[in-house]
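Sequence only, no structure available. Ideas?
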Amino acid sequence: MIPLRDNIPPRRFPFVNYAILGFTTLVFVSQLLESHRGDRLVERFGMVPARVLDPDGKITVTQRRAVDTPFGIRVVERRIEVPPAALPPWLTLLTCIFLHAGWLHFLGNMWTLYIFGDNVEDRLGHLGYLAFYLLTGVAASAAHLAANTDSPVPTIGASGAIAGVMGAYMRLYPRAKVLTLVPVLVFLHMVVLPAPFFLGLWFLLQLFQGTISMGATEMGGVAWWAHIGGFAVGYLIASILGGRGVLHPQVEVIRPNTERIRVYRVRPWEGHRR
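Reply:
I predicted one. Tokens follow.
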């Protein structure tokens, strides 16, 4: 399921959300420019669980590549040493959330952050949202670290922090709706789904995949437990802050008759951005 837009207009311009999008884009462009040097940025700034827990240890990983030989293509394996981090290894729990593995990884994360991040920033405030995003990103990295303590594979991606944003959105906007692109066989359908259903189903899928992937320590793939941890922490923080009454009020709109109503009582797709 691909979210296309929601029906909650932001009350104020989401400066921080756009700043995060812009900074992450600059980092990704830097990765593209460094591509001729291999994965240097990923190796130096990605979060390697084994390196975080044993900063002085020697860490090796198996590199596999296809080689064209006179007898056909065969896969060659070799052990290479993971270089030391450019920063103290524990700081890579934060730096890794600004790196991405490719165009689909990058675009998928940035689009999801664009859809949900502005509304969460609206409730938390600019500085509060920045602290929230960084905190959930670190929490997501810590969750992946706890589930893969011996892994020598660098972990990168903003999806853990964005999962935190999604968890907060689910808590703060329980009656929002999301216009969603749903593939059914070879056809694509646009469906309006309640945000809790869309986000809850996404979380259950992460939980299922994370459970069945436990024990795979040296293969690349999706950091399911980073998604799970980020989502849970984001939902928890939003619940705590909401219970203490420190959040900005929900977005409201004014009808022509000046009656103030919550936005989700207005016809969903008329008069809203995106």
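The first helix runs from residue 15 to 33.
Hope that gets you unstuck.
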